[in-house]
Amino acid sequence: MTIIFVHGITIRQDRFDRLLSDVRDGFGRAGSALDVCGCYWGDLGRSSGYRGVSIPGFVTGRRGINEEAAVENNAGLLAILLEDPLAELLVLRDVEKFTLEGSGSGFRPVPENVELRNQALRAAEQPVVTRITTRSSSFTNMEDSLAADQVARLAHDVFETAAAADRSLDVVALCAPVARAITAELYQLLGGEDALAGGFCWNRTVEVVESALEAQLGGQRGMFKSFAATSLTLALRHGLRNRIMPGLSLFLGDVFAWFRNREAILQRVDEAVRIARHNSPLVLVGHSLGGVIAFEYCLQADREVQLLATVGSQVGLFGELGVLHPTTPTTAGALSPPAKVAMWRNIYDPNDALSFCAAPIFTGVSDIELDTGAPFPVSHSEYWNLPNTYAKLVIR
């Protein structure tokens, strides 16, 4: 049996090679002994010359609607931090001006508790920088580490801003917003222009940042998801800008390219299947639009597909919209899986705006909710950095 991995949107050859290697490693660690082969179709996707100049406010022009985003869950706050990593800490600042150097505003002395807190922050800064720098090669799928001065600059900005926090907040209370701010800064530094293509390992970075702060300031693991009520008030002061719109336009570009090059892309899948060494049943794993491609390939497959796995995919959406291939079977008014598919699992994260349920639209599919712990758009690629994804796809 062989696993054929079909990538999703915005992936190009260099990223595909690294992603396929990660997927192979992930299935291996999950206990799968199956060969993992890849199907690359990214060169048939959207134009490589796309720069987003048609989006108002992205490159040129102005955005006409300036609406504020209400934060009702953790993902909303994190999405704001991807735009402005210091946003949460700025909301928490005291009415007076404190700094790591200990100077207060005017002639008022710095409160003793604030001075002690900021001394602890000052003492923690360099050890935190050292620990993050040492582990920084794990933040992306590249082997290069960050330079210490890069980490030092972003960490100093965060610690300096934290030192101005409300006098009622001690170092333990500040650990969570500091962790979120440092992680968001690292994302801005390393995430690249195309967040949907992945490459930034969100949960791995969170783990390193939390452990560094835990060792120096006494925070606890899991602090990243501990949101104080005061932090959530920043939703009233900060609106989401245009991070989501560029990502969605890249998605639409590859979707339109899929409809234009449908037969050529399906031929790529067929070639990957035929190159696979075994004639035994297949496992097809499709991410994002790759899930739609894998589904439609199964409609024409001439061999049994033991498992169709769609991850962060739009098969449910396309089925509901009625834009899947006309040969998609129906049963009693509902859509059915392709006849050659023995089992279908659909993994989605509610915080991934490009993932959809399939069970309300299709018979014979198991929807599996998985919390990637990352905000959109990072959540759309974070599945492949989580052992739990592979554990849910391994056939025992």
Description:
This protein has 396 residues and is of the alpha/beta class. It is 43% helix and 9% strand. It has 14 helices and 8 strands. α4 (112-135) crosses α7 (202-217) and α10 packs across α11 (289-300). Mean pLDDT is 84; it is low at 57-73 and 232-242.
Short description:
With 396 residues, the chain is of the alpha/beta class. It contains 14 helices and eight strands.
Please outline the helices and strands.
Elements: E1 2-6, H1 13-29, E2 35-39, H2 74-83, H3 87-91, H4 112-135, H5 148-162, H6 171-190, H7 202-217, H8 229-232, H9 244-260, H10 262-275, E3 282-287, H11 289-300, E4 305-311, H12 315-321, E5 330-331, E6 334-335, E7 344-348, E8 366-369, H13 379-382, H14 387-391
Parallel strand pairs: 1-2, 1-3, 3-4, 4-7, 7-8
Antiparallel strand pairs: 5-6
Helix pairs in contact: 2-6, 4-5, 4-7, 5-6, 6-7, 10-11
Largest sheet: 6 strands, parallel
List the strand order in the largest sheet: 2-1-3-4-7-8
Q: What is the gyration radius calculated from CA atoms?
A: 23 Å
- Estimated helix fraction: 40-55%
The end-to-end span amounts to 13 Å
CATH class of the largest domain, named: Alpha Beta
DSSP, total strands: 8
- Order of helical and strand elements: EHEHHHHHHHHHEHEHEEEEHH
Predict the CATH topology of the largest domain: Rossmann fold
Task: Specify the CATH homologous superfamily of the largest domain.
Answer: Alpha/Beta hydrolase fold, catalytic domain
